[in-house]
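Components:
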Amino acid sequence: MLKVKKLNKIYPNGTHALKDISFEVKKGEFLIIIGLSGSGKSTLLRCLNRLIDPTSGSIIFEDEEISTLKGAALRKVRSRIGMVFQNFNLIPRFSVLKNTLTGSLSRTGTIASIFGNFSKEEEKKARSFLKTVGLNGKERSRADNLSGGQQQRLSMARALMQNPELLLADEPVASLDPATSHTVMDYLKKINQEFGVTIICNLHFLSLVKEYGTRVLALKDGEIVYEGPPEGIDEQWFRTIYGEDAKEVRIK
Amino acid sequence: MEIRYPEFSWGEPLVCLVLGLIVSSVIYFLLPRLSIGRAIYFKTYAQLNKPLLKRPYIYLGLFIFLITLISGLYVSQVSLREFFSHSGLMGAKRIFIALFTPNFGILEHALFAAIETIYMAFIATLFAIPVAFVLSFFAAKNLMRDSIVLIVTYSIIRFILNLTRSIEPLIWAIIFSVWVGIGPFSGMMALCIHSIASLSKLYSEQIEGIDEGTMESITATGAKPIQVVWFGVVPQIILPFISFTIYRWDINVRMATIIGLVGGGGIGTLLMQYQGLAKWNEVGLLVIIIASIVWAMDYISTKIRQAIK
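Structure:
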């Protein structure tokens, strides 16, 4: 469903963040991208829904070249790709329900959305997705009153509101404790399996990679150094990816 | 119109400059091996590679500062003799006694003028809010960097706002009193223009300081640009906006009294009239009223701003 060819990103300050990245993602995959901080994981993910414009290369999403789209066409593609972030990026002062409804902004008229006039069906949908991520009963609380794990689940409900074909997760558990991390990853897995949403996820922890990923991509200094099944990452590969002195941290 | 003492002319500074140039070029070109230090300490040329003053620039700076201080005192005509002169002290005593025995006969009159001032400030702030609100988004760098058109719009709006803000409300009041006539309307217009410029700046700085993650996440849902601003930016800035606006109303009430002095209406105009007639008892009452308004506004605005934090 997604083909990336020779993708390059050079920032205005000269940093060459992505170097000739090429890979493919098939429908229903749970692809995990690993690598050190600064290896280009976040940049890669943000290029896929064009939060960052790539310098060169092509991104083909469902047989459509999206790396040069603009305006309404770009928004249309973005609406088909959900995204969750390390810092959740919710609207703290809004209710849980209203935060979920922001996932339907692309389908709602500008004026209607400014006055908070979301349709009844959207609201029904929002409630059912909140149930999916286990936040039923919390609809009226403010988003900033939720715990970290709950906030991340809320951001998943928001992404589900887009009816996404692809979900990008940028370090979804990096600011959560180990136990909560597993819950959040379990919900990602549920979205992957029950809703058939393809997932591309950036992760730090190798133990989580082996448990959840169907395929792994390792980045180092903006280049792909490993592509294959999670089980294939042995001690040797681990050192290549994370450096000679690295030690594996496991979370159980 | 000669109102300055001492009279300024180009002659003296030019003579000093030319003299200094001549002296320094004589030293530099004709006496390269002579130095005052060596003359004083009878040192040989070879011993002189160490500077006599370790930090010559500090001494030079101090010297320049002293000269500036002395000429500053001279130019601003600071005079202790005038300050403590007998007739001067008597005048001060007379005016202070008058100020502290205010004439309550004009209380009603003064209160109506004060109400005029408060409403003037209120309307000026109210009219400024929507304009400043819209302008602030165009004056926020983080929203305006994506294309050339936006950057140019940003620069033009910033320039106009800076220009408007650098002109004091007092000057605006003079301009508007010629334009729409002396009275509260011209004062209101002056305050409004200045409020728009300064509120836009405060608002836009607030926008520049937002957490851009929320904007990013709303953009990622495929929302339209206006929706991104409404959901990604506005919820983060609404409280600081209200706080700034109340603070601005507070400032406007203070300024409105000053603006009245140049014909902007309200209690300031009344103050100027009584002051011109040297009716110090009436002036005393007006000062008390102004002080209590300013105190009350300050108190209320602080309370409200604390409450919405």
